[in-house]
Amino acid sequence: LRPVVETGYENLLLVRLLVELQVPSVRKSSVADGLTVEAILENWSQLKPIIMKEWDEERDALIDLFGRVRDEWIDNDLSGWIGANRFYPGVADALRFASSQLYIVTTKQARFADALLRELAGVTIPAERIYGLGTGPKVKVLKQLQEIPEHQGLSLHFVEDRLATLKNVIKEPALAGWNLYLGRWGYNTEKERAEAESILRIQLLDLSDFSKKLK
Question: Quick check: 215 pLDDT over 80?
């Protein structure tokens, strides 16, 4: 089910929903009865607002809670938190030895992305080149990046693991100059990868080819 999670706080909703599937006595949502994993994968964007309303949860409060708990974990046990995370094989080296200028555009809060890059990958990326949660949709960030004067005339590449995000980029005529890639190794499904293959703007990228793109 990880492919449905766009932002970290959604894990809280997903885990609670899975508990309701398994323990009928604690159910407070109208969608849990008879719900399957396949249905969650297909309909998460429709299910999420329903369960948030029925559970009386707010997005900003959940984001704050998720970040606060993670901050406490990092403060009390940095090595434990780092050990609970990992990069896909080869990604750390690809970032470390990249000759291209890199920007990180993520739905993760920037301070956590920075900590993982430094501690796990041994990579230090300037704070102004990490666009985390709160900096706006990725489409907006890409527009900002392409307008930077020193980027004029350069080839721009955007590697993403969510097909929906790439489709949003394609909808924006102003972003027609970006080369778009869907990482096969990321949080996407076989169905999404098959759909991506039918979209001319999108190239499917294998993990083994990722480092080549950064050189």
Answer: no
Q: At 171, which amino acid appears?
A: K
CA distances from 25 to 7, 28, 57, 119, 146 (A): 28, 9, 20, 43, 52
110 and 21 belong to one structural domain: no
For residues 93 and 55, membership in a common domain is answered with: no
Is residue 31 assigned to a domain?
yes
Q: Whole domain around residue 43: which residue ranges?
A: 2-60
Residue 16 contacts residue 55 (beta carbons within 8 Å): yes
SS3 content of the chain, % helix, strand, coil (to 5): 55, 10, 35
| 119 and 184 assigned to the same domain | yes
CATH at 138: 3.40.50
Residues 6+ positions from 132 with CB-CB distance below 8 Å? 104, 106, 107, 108, 109, 110, 111, 112, 113
pLDDT in tens, 36-86: 999 999 999 999 999 999 999 999 999 999 999 999 999 999 999 999 999
Half-sphere exposure of 155 (CA within 13 A, CB side): 7
At 167-177, the pLDDT tens digits run 999 999 999 99
Calpha distance 205→163 (Å, rounded): 12
The letter for the amino acid at 207 is L
Strand ranges in the chain using DSSP code E only, listed in sequence order: 104-105, 130-131, 156-160, 178-183, 202-205
**What pTM does this model have?**
0.85
